Amino acid sequence: MGNLLNKISSRFRLNNLHSLSKVYIRQVFASLFIKAGSVIISLLYIPLALGYLDTEKYGIWVTLTTIVNWIGVLDIGMSNGLRNKLAEALAKEDIKLGKIYISTAYAFLGGIFLSVLILFMAVNPFINWQVILNTHAISRHELYLITSVAVSCVILRFIVDTITMVDAAHGNSAKAAMLLAIGNGVSLILVWLATLFTQKGNILLLCTIVTVVPVLVYTLYSLIVFGKKYKNIRPSFSAVKIEHSKSLIGLSLQFFIVQITATILYSSSPFIITQLFNPAAVTQFSIVTNIFTMPVMIFGLICSPIMPLVTQAFVKKDNEWIKSALRRLNYFSLLFCAGTVIMIFLSGWIYKIWLGDKVHIPFNLSAAIGIYTIIIILNAPFSNFINGLGKIKILTFISPIEIGFFVTLAIILSKLFNDVIGVSVALSITALITLILLPLEIRKALKNNKP
What we know:
Shape: globular
Low-confidence stretches: none
Number of helices: 18
Number of strands: 0
Order of helices and strands: HHHHHHHHHHHHHHHHHH
Number of domains: 1
Radius of gyration: 22 Å
Largest sheet: none
Strand content: under 5%
Oligomer: single chain
Mean pLDDT: 83
């Protein structure tokens, strides 16, 4: 991979660019290359899982994984805070402070998530998941087993995948995409084998495969890099210094508030749809969002490597590079918006080729989620830059407003249209709030960051 990136740099004369621009472009090339494999894996996984389960069970699985992933907000934003603060420490060449940040982050995450796991295991036998998921297609006992496995593995994953933030702080965001691709690839192979050698409909087996594999991948990688590449900043109990990490915790709490909002806005949709309609409607919604997640995902790969580099540039007061990078990403966002419009009109053909006659998707749902996708793409450069600058205080103020606004609007519009399209429209309207406010906040931050 390193030799390939060097050849690309030479071919396109990247060596003459700003040092941060060179790092950024190399990471984008690497991320896109790796993610291409992940997209193929995702496209193969969904019809495979649909065939192995059925429409209702697949909808239940999507809803359940969405609910379980809500646990991620309990990291109080520590992972994102670690990325920013570690990037600042590295920009100042303060290795000792970087080690303190890493050790403190792992200690907090371990303490919080393991406590949550113990609490969940104590109360899970008393939770009626059939009521929560609005289904009787799966027995209460089997749902208990599924949730126990899923929650345990997801909690462990949230701890061990912190290593991706350490990589990101070093300007190596592509490693996260690589680890995700490896985990998804292994999971796909195992699910395929399950379809060949086990009875269809075994959702517990599917759950075990999909949740255990990522934990193993991140754990093995962490042991390798902390033993070699990052040995000088390897986490240790002696380096946990709460009193020296107030800034880390403060920034993390701000990210925490933003994460809660993002989780409710973007991950609660399947739960809302299940309650207002049925699990089969979740399947329709999930398939459309999976298709229109692709331009967001690809553009996210272009945007995400910029975040720790913005942090470094901001610490060094290199405002001109920040402005130039933001302007270019905004140009790219317009291209992706145009591509999304084309996807909307081709959506029927895409579903036909991809899934055949397994599920019918109405065009108005594709159009509604396509419009929401366009707003998210326009938002992406600004949200990545505001996170890189660490100036997210404004988001902590508007987040509670967004939560109440979205949930209320989603329920009202869903009942008004009597269709899941109401949830998509509510998401689009809510996303417009940050699209208006973030550019203003970035301009203010750069104005106050004079050399």
